[in-house]
Amino acid sequence: MAVKYKLVFSDFDDTLTRSDGSISERTVKAVAEYEKAGGTFVVCTGRSYASIKKQLPRVYGERAAHVPVICFQGGLTADAQGRVIRRVAMDRNDLIELATEAEKRGIVAQTYSGDRMYCSKMTVESREYEIITDCTFDLVGDLVGFIKNYDGEFDKLLMIAEPEKVQSLKRGFEAKGYPSTRFVFSKPRYLEAIPSCSGKDKAIEFFVKRFGFDREDVAAFGDSNNDTDMLKTAFFGVAMGNAREECKLAAACVADTNDNDGLAKMLESFIL
Predict the structure, then answer these.
(1) Contacts (Cβ under 8 Å, ≥6 apart) of 12
(2) Where are the beta strands (DSSP E) in 1-47?
(3) Per-residue pLDDT of the chain (272 residues; tens, 9 = 90+)
(4) Counting Cβ atoms within 10 Å, is residue 87 exposed (0-12), middle (13-18) or buried (19+)?
(5) How far apart, in Å, are the Cα atoms of 158 and each of 54, 73, 162, 227?
């Protein structure tokens, strides 16, 4: 057997997973068959490395300990041996201003540094996020003060609120202008601030160059705003049937939905 595209990048939530968070047997089998035929399948997610590593056995089985992964919306890339080969940190001044403005509007922000997650206080949204990611927040009281005094680097800032609230917040941020930071939505309620040289598109460009692939080798799957640039960067971008409209417009092809094995069906078609 051979594969039509040697390298596939896939978003995790609502692309690899079904709407209820499960992963179908057909998807797991399709990933295994694709790799057996010579392909490389890479999960590319907004989750932290700690969170996605817990989920990878559901995708790869016993192979999960020896696969590369991209996380933090492209801000961190780890190779198959688990070594961090690229990490892009947030601009500290931008992070402080963004967190200050979010909390001034009553939106509790949460930030990430490596395997740790920090927020000022536990909210309904934060607790839901802990459940989804299977990770626990460190509650720091004054998040902005914590950021100012923290010795390490930060990977991203996430703000969760109703869609109209975070849309308004994004418009305000973009009107002021933050050259070192870009803003993406991973879900309609999830506004993420990430380094401007980060993003899933930048991460796959790095990965392709680092491991000697050509752009013609690359396919990518996604469903949300944070996936649109990745789909444009890949030679063959595939939007899920459940994807946001802007994501579909950025893709070369629209697959079936995540609840109807859309990724698996497309992946099977890549095996010649």
Answers:
(1) 43, 44, 45, 47, 52, 55
(2) 7-10, 40-44
(3) 799 999 999 999 999 999 999 999 999 999 999 999 999 999 999 999 999 999 999 999 999 999 999 999 999 999 999 999 999 999 999 999 999 999 999 998 999 999 999 999 999 999 999 999 999 999 999 999 999 999 999 999 999 999 999 999 999 999 999 999 999 999 999 999 999 999 999 999 999 999 999 999 999 999 999 999 999 999 999 999 999 999 999 999 999 999 999 999 999 999 97
(4) middle
(5) 20, 11, 13, 16
Place of tokens 């990965």: 207
Q: Which two tokens stand for residue 168?
A: 């308004």
Residue 40 tokens, joined: 């490389």
Cross-strand bridge partners of residue 194: 182
**3-state secondary structure (DSSP) of residue 118:** strand
